[in-house]
Amino acid sequence: MAKYKFKPFPLLTSTRLALKPFSAEDLPRVFDLRSSPEVAKYLDRPLMNDSAETEAYLEKMQQGVAMGQWIIWGIHFQQEGFVGSICLWNLSEEEKKADIGYELLPAFQGKGIMSEAIPLVIAYGFEEMQLDRITAEVHLQNLTSVALLKKYGFIVGEEGSSTLTIYTLFR
To answer: Are 57 and 27 in contact (CB under 8 A)?
Structure first.
């Protein structure tokens, strides 16, 4: 049984962002996000092919949140609506750790959105979930993500594989 309970769902906000659960109205942009070769360039996952896959993904994400397996937020930017996602997953109650993952639609990259979203999620993980560490597995060539993690104090923890490095942030 998972320790983590995400009811009510934690809404996180900043000046320009609202991090909230996925909804049916997000589906077209979730499909755009999950079917973009540019977004998936450094990720080890297949691209989505149709709306049925997107609906199944949405249902899977909602079930995982309900079961306390992970917490995933849709990132909503000002009046633009859904522009990406950020999550804490691979939750370990025993180790008090989680992995962080995030992705943005290409049109919204480079606008400081993740620079606002990541601190909100880190604070939630450490303060509300009482995690001791948050890790991120990053492709060595994803220099933008590496710089972003370093900006928030993540340090190289270990090599994940020949192309991946694991960064860690301790509370």
So the answer is: no
- Domains of the chain plus CATH, in order, are 12-170 (3.40.630.30)
CA 48 – CA 45 distance, rounded (Å): 9
Give the predicted TM-score (pTM) of the model: 0.94
pLDDT average, residue stretch 19-26: 95
Give me the pLDDT at residue 111, please. 96
Contact 65, 19 (CB under 8 A): no
In our burial notation (b when 16+ CB lie closer than 10 A, e otherwise), range 89-127 reads: eebeeeebbbbbbbbbbeebeeeebbebbbebbbebbbe
Q: Please say whether the beta carbons of 98 and 91 come within 8 A.
A: yes
Would you state the pLDDT for residue 4?
87
Q: Which residue has the higher pLDDT, 85 or 1?
A: 85
